[in-house]
Amino acid sequence: MSIISKAMTNNWISLVDKELRASHAGETGAVWIYRGALTADFLVSIVAGLWAKLTPPRLSGQEDEKQKRDDNMSSFASEHLATEKSHLDIFENHMPPFRGSYMLLLWMVAGFMTGFLPRILGRNWFFYTIYCVECFVDEHYEEQCGLLESVEPTPFDVLEKFRRCQSDEQSHRDEAYNAMTSAPTSAMKLWGNMVGKGSAIAVVMAKKI
Ligand SMILES: [Fe+2]
Ligand SMILES: [Fe+2]
């Protein structure tokens, strides 16, 4: 192998390694977002149960409506958790070997809080947060696929697997947006902005550390 082609090979190995590390960190965070949301869901249902015992019964229609909304969030989080686990499995078992981020614990905690807090704040907070996260993830996968196209053919069909995950994230984004019952408030937009900026910083850090 010539010096030039060896240098090129080393370059793309390093590029693929960084992109795999960043997306593995992202998918780890995504799994923990839904773990955080389901934990909050569990706590909210306990508090709601206690509250129902302490207060006079509400009109059954109101009660049913609230229960339906909570069930909807819970099944959304459970279904998405399963998909994010399947994405993580792709990165952990079906990709070329890469160095994982040294900061995985931080991505888990950050993910957990990103799911936990909005779920406590309510339905639209939760779905809007997922919408913002998935908008970021979709754009990030798009950027990565653009880079990977320059090193085609990628080993282990890395590009095709990134595209498959991206397509799921696009469905998650649309599903979350459609589940919202009103436009986001200014506070929600501020939070969504912070989530987007935080995700961008996390990607930069995960590529390096
Ligand atoms: Fe994912
Ligand atoms: Fe997703």
Automatic annotation (TrEMBL):
The organism's place on the tree of life at top rank: Bacteria
UniProt entry keywords in alphabetical sequence: Membrane, Transmembrane, Transmembrane helix, Ubiquinone
Gene Ontology biological process terms, A to Z: ubiquinone biosynthetic process
InterPro entries linked: Ubq_synth_Coq7 (IPR011566)
MF-aspect GO terms: 3-demethoxyubiquinol 3-hydroxylase activity
Pfam families associated with the record: COQ7 (PF03232)
Keyword Transmembrane (UniProt): yes
Bilayer-crossing regions: 31-52, 102-121
Residues in the signal sequence: none
Protein name: Demethoxyubiquinone hydroxylase family protein
